[in-house]
Design goal:
The complex is a heterodimer. By secondary structure, chain A is mostly helical. Chain A is built from eight helices and no strands. Chain A has helices at 2-26, 30-65, 67-82, 89-94, 99-112, 118-129, 133-143, 151-174. The two termini of chain A are 19 Å apart. Chain B is mostly helical. In chain B, helix 6 packs antiparallel against helix 8 (169-194). Chain B is globular. The chains are: A mainly alpha, B mainly alpha. At the A-B interface, helix 1, helix 2, helix 5, helix 6 and helix 7 of A face helix 1, helix 2, helix 5, helix 6 and helix 7 of B.
Amino acid sequence: MFYIKAASEIILPVVFLIFIISALRAKTDAFSAFSEGVKDSFGIICDIFPSVFCLMTAIGMLRSSGLLQFIITAITPLFNHLGIPPEIAPAAILRPLSGSGSIALLSDILKSHNPDSLIGIMASVITGSTETTFYTIAVYFGSAGIKNSGNAVKAALIADVVSIGVSIAVCKLLF
Amino acid sequence: MIVILNKIWIFIILASLIYSFFSGSYTKIINDALSSGGECVSLMLTLLASMSLFNGFLKIAEKSGIIKKIAKLSEPVLRLLFPAIPKGHQAFGDMSMNIAANFLGMGNAATPLGIKAMKSLSSLNRNKTHPSPAMCLFTVMNTSSIQLIPTTIIALRMNYNSENPFIITLPIFISGLAGLIAGIIAVKFCNAERN
């Protein structure tokens, strides 16, 4: 397990080192290239800001109005019936909607429950098994100037439901 | 034409506003919306910093020919998923870098790479406001990407004194993979239906 941690820490410095060394070998103008990359980033941020802003505002209102809590309370009996701890319901629902929200929720759950308990593990797996759907779509399609998201949203949500479902099932089986 | 994201967005705002009148939270809902906006701005600033760093290095890698080399290795596999993209196209390089970054848990590096890939794919797209099947598939793959090392989750668990922070690695991989496969099938199905 130590090796996984060591590996994930060492990857980035090694990768950057490889890049610089190959720049030396290929006689690339690294400084100009780097600056160009930075300039590109600025354009990207400008492109994605509006869509992400729209999304975060909507999610913020959803939480603030209490509607999110209402939905969670409504789903709790179903979860109890399936033998799933209802505490993970907010994590499951929020995951496709908000990345920072999911992380905040996971922190909350890990803080108030033992991280190695079924609840702690299930919440961790749910949060880690998929990305923030709407944010990713907003960023990727926004940067490419796509106005019509079409089938992507449906397919992505199906993927999320499967991910979350499998997370819950796997955790119930293994722990 | 009203698109699905538009419908969902309108629905969320509408439902939240109406519900706020019933729950009494209408007094604070606009303030909370404003602070969400503030969160978005700081998020963008953080992203700008990390994106600039990664993009800078990646541009160096691109100009030094490394991206092309990596692309050559992974292109055969990606061609199975993206048959419409011409052999040797830039997009394969960008996509494989994005997938590799996500796989290794480098989320912040993956995003600019993904955006770059989208731009490459966009150059092959005929209808500029509608995603091509390739763009759809690639984006959905990113919404459900699998990670070998889920760095953020592990860090959080260690922060809260988990005795076994890495125990979630395999379950995350399994459920991530399941979601990825489901997503790929769903996109292929939807795209086939459309045609």
